[in-house]
Amino acid sequence: MKSFILLLAAAFVWSCSNANLFSSNDDEKLERTPDGPSGQTIIEMQISGGIAGVNQQLLIDANRYVQFIDQRGQAGQIETVLPADELNRLIKLFVEKDFLHMQPQYLDGRVADAFNYRVIYRYSGANKQVETDYFGAPAELRSIVDNLLNLTKPLNGLALEFKTSAVQLRHGEKLTLTLTVTNRNTAPLTLTYSSGQKFDFFATAAPAATSRVPAQAFLWNWAYDKAFIAIVIEETLQPGESRTYSAEWDGRSNKGDLLEGEFWLGSRLVGQPGGYTALRRVVITK
Q1: Does residue 143 sit in the same domain as residue 163?
Q2: pLDDT bracket for residue 39 (50, 70, 90)
Q3: Signed CA dihedral, 77, 36, 272, 116: sign only
Q4: Residue 198's domain is classified under what CATH number?
Q5: How far is Cα 6 from Cα 98, in angstroms, rounded to an integer?
Q6: Of 130, 156, 182, which residue is a domain's last?
Q7: What pLDDT does residue 144 have?
Q8: What is the distance between the alpha carbons of residues 178 and 44, in angstroms, rounded to a whole number?
Q9: 53 band by pLDDT with thresholds 50, 70 and 90
Q10: Cβ within 8 Å of residue 238, ≥6 positions away
Q11: How many domains is the chain partitioned into structurally?
C-alpha cells in the first residue's frame, strides 16, 4: 500500500499571539466564503534554504483566501480563509512598517544555512519584493516576517495522508481510497465545515501543476452524486488526534463509463483549514 503524507511544517516554531487566527464570529460563519483562490495575490512569502532544504510558499489573495504550499517531494497544499479584520491588519502592518521603502535585500553573509524569506506585496498599485535571511533584516522587516510565519502556525501542523489500496485496477475491481487527517500541532485545531461534506476523492486524466485540481477537470469524484446538508459544523482535533475517511472507486467516470488508461487520484479535506494531498498515479486496464 502506497502512502503519501502531506505535512506542511515550517522550519521554525514561532509563538502566536492570536491563537484563534482563523476563527470567526457567528455572523461571519453565515457569510459565503471563497471556495478557492479568486482574486489577485496581494501578499506572498517564499521560504527556502536551511539545512533541510525548505521550499514553501504562502499566498494570500484579495478575497482572503490563503494557500500554504510545500514544494518538496510529493507537493500538496493546505488552505483556509482569513477573517476580514485579519487581512486588514496585515495590510496595515505593511504600511506601518514602511515596507515599500525598504531595500530589495537584507542578507547577512556571515550566517550559513540560513532560511531565506522573499516577501512580496501587491496592493493598491504597489508591487514590492524584499529578500532577507532574517538575521540581516531591520526590526520592521522582522516584524512582517514573524507575522506571516505566525499565520502559517495553524496550518503547518495539519497532516493529510492519502492512501490507495493498489496502483493498478482491472475492470470489475474496486480501489479503496483513504484520507487520514491528523493534528500534529501542540495545541487543539478546530476545523470548520460549511456543509455536511468533510472530504472528497477525485480522479483526473492528467497531473496538474499543483495538487489543487479544479472541479471541471474531475472525471470522477466521490461527492458528485451526493447531497449535503447546509450547516456550519466545527470539529476540534486534539494534539495528535486523527480522523479517517474512506471510499471505494470502481474505475467509472461520473457519467458511468468504465475508464481505461493512466489516471491521477487525489483527496481533499473540505474544511477551513483544509487542503489537497499529492496526486497518485493509477493505471486502469480491462
Answers
A1: no
A2: confident
A3: positive
A4: 2.60.40.2360
A5: 36
A6: 156
A7: 98
A8: 32
A9: confident
A10: 183, 188
A11: 2
* Residue 170, strand partner residues: 285
**Cell numbers describing residue 14:** 514561532
CATH number where 37 lies: 3.30.1560.10
37 shares its domain with 118: yes
Residue 256's SS3 state is coil
The amino acid that residue 51 corresponds to is I
In a domain, 16, yes or no: no
Query: Domain end: 156, 174, 189, which one?
Result: 156
Q: Which residue has the cell 515596507?
A: 99
pLDDT at residue 74, as a whole number: 56
DSSP 252: B
CB 76 within 8 A of CB 179: no
H or E element in which residue 234 lies: strand 233-237
Task: Collect all residues with Cβ–Cβ distance below 8 Å to 149 and sequence separation of at least 6.
Answer: 10, 12, 14
Q: How far apart are CA 75 and CA 146, in angstroms?
A: 24
Partners of residue 137 on adjacent β-strands: none
Please report whether residue 223 resides in a domain: yes
Q: How far is residue 6's CA from residue 69's CA, in Å, rounded to a whole number?
A: 10
The torsion angle over the Cα atoms of residues 17, 12, 179 and 204, rounded to 10 degrees, is: 110
